[in-house]
Amino acid sequence: MVNGLQNLATSLILVSCSDNTVTPEPSPFTIPTSGSTYTYLEYATDKLGNKVSETEVTDVESVIASNISYSGKNGVWAISSTENNDTTYFCVDQNNDVLFKPSGGADIFGDDTWLRIPVTTGTAFSDSTASTQDFNGIPVELRTTMNITRIADEQVTVGSQSFKTTKVRLNINVKALAFGQVVNESNLESTLWYAPSLGHFLRMVQPATTLGGQDENGSYRSLQSYNLK
Questions:
Q1: What is the pairing mode between strands 115-117 and 98-102?
Q2: In this predicted structure, what is the pLDDT of residue 3?
Q3: Which residue range forms the structural domain that includes residue 126?
Q4: How far apart are CA 219 and CA 52, in angstroms?
Q5: Cα 206 versus chain centre, distance
Q6: What is the pLDDT of residues 68-91, one digit of tens each?
Q7: Which residues contact 223 (CB under 8 A, 6 or more apart)?
Q8: Both ends of the chain: CA-CA distance in Å?
Q9: Which candidate, 162, 200, 226, places its Cα nearest to that of 66?
Q10: What mean pLDDT do residues 170-192 have?
Q11: How many domains does the structure of the chain reveal?
């Protein structure tokens, strides 16, 4: 997975305030149990979306805990990556939406923020957070705004099987302020496909971007196989 803000953006999604909502309907969700695995193909992409040579890796993610209580939520499952050692926590809320919390997201989103995948309710969600970090003795405020748009329910094929996914587009804006002045601003955009019947993301695409004045490659990540316990 890509590092820093890009790594967060591939799994970043969606939060608590709804612009347009509908009456929730029951949805088929799979809560994966411990020992379940997901194998992904991942590689970097250039500004044109082409694969960057010699960046392809295989990442196996494993469910390390299921149906636990975590950060104020019940029925949580935790999925850990062998490629970058990150852990992401998922749960289903009372509206049949999926919430998730990336282990590396506290600096950007705060300790208490669960991000929202609008599987069932609404079409547009937004939220914002603020935190202060110390950089070389200088207090820097990070103001993060997240906007998510549900694009469609889309069928995606893995091997010989087709899965219904919720396709969403995530936009993240991060402003860094020192002494009240904006010293850096970054915008990240990702498209993600979440498969309720698998309990995980099926595909994640992030285009190349510029962060902190430096060009950064994009990333492509796609599920190749899985084993649900």
A1: antiparallel
A2: 40
A3: 4-227
A4: 9
A5: 11
A6: 999 899 999 999 998 777 899 999
A7: 38, 39, 40, 158, 198, 200, 201, 202, 203
A8: 25
A9: 200
A10: 88
A11: 1
